[in-house]
Amino acid sequence: MPQITVDYSDTLDESFDRRGFALALHPVVVETVAARTPACKTRFRPVRDFTAGDGEADDAIVHVGIGLLPGRTDEAKAALTEAVLALVQQHIKPTDLTLHISAETRDLDASYRKI
């Protein structure tokens, strides 16, 4: 914990600095929601097929989901989500694609386990 998943359009492979994003994100997570750096795990999943709106534009998506153990305030989770949106923009080179960037910070449910 935290479990961080980044779904992103594979058309951003060359313009999205994924490692740089993860390395910048982990300290923000630690500072904002009192996590430990070694506990931060970020995985990236390229998305090949998706449709935004009417499907006419050249769109790309980035969605960051962060799962935390319960106990953080809604305000702390919202602050983390806002920071994530800013970080994503800082780690994507300019592109002609229309970017749809989203993020969510949520509590992991009681079934979460790790070994």
How would you characterize the overall build of this protein?
The longest helix has 17 residues, at 74-90. The protein is of the alpha/beta class. 29% of the residues lie in helices and 30% in strands. The chain is built from two helices and four strands. 21% of the residues are buried. The chain is globular, with a radius of gyration of 15 Å. Helix 1 (18-33) packs antiparallel against helix 2 (74-90). It has a single domain (3-107), classed as Macrophage Migration Inhibitory Factor (2-Layer Sandwich), CATH 3.30.429.10. One of its GO terms (molecular function) is 5-carboxymethyl-2-hydroxymuconate delta-isomerase activity.
CATH H-tier superfamily: Macrophage Migration Inhibitory Factor
Label the CATH architecture. 2-Layer Sandwich
The dominant shape is globular
Q: What is the CATH third-level topology name?
A: Macrophage Migration Inhibitory Factor
Distance separating the two termini: 11 Å
The class by helix and strand makeup works out as alpha/beta
Number of extended strands = 4
CATH structural class: Alpha Beta
Order of helices and strands: EHEEHE
Q: Oligomeric form of this entry?
A: single chain
Radius of gyration: 15 Å
Largest sheet: 4 strands, mixed
Strand order of the largest sheet: 2-1-3-4
Range of strand content: 25-35%
How many alpha or pi helices?
Answer: 2
Helix amount: 25-40%
- The low-pLDDT segments are none
Q: What is the total domain count? A: 1
Question: Roughly what is the average pLDDT, rounded to an integer?
Answer: 95
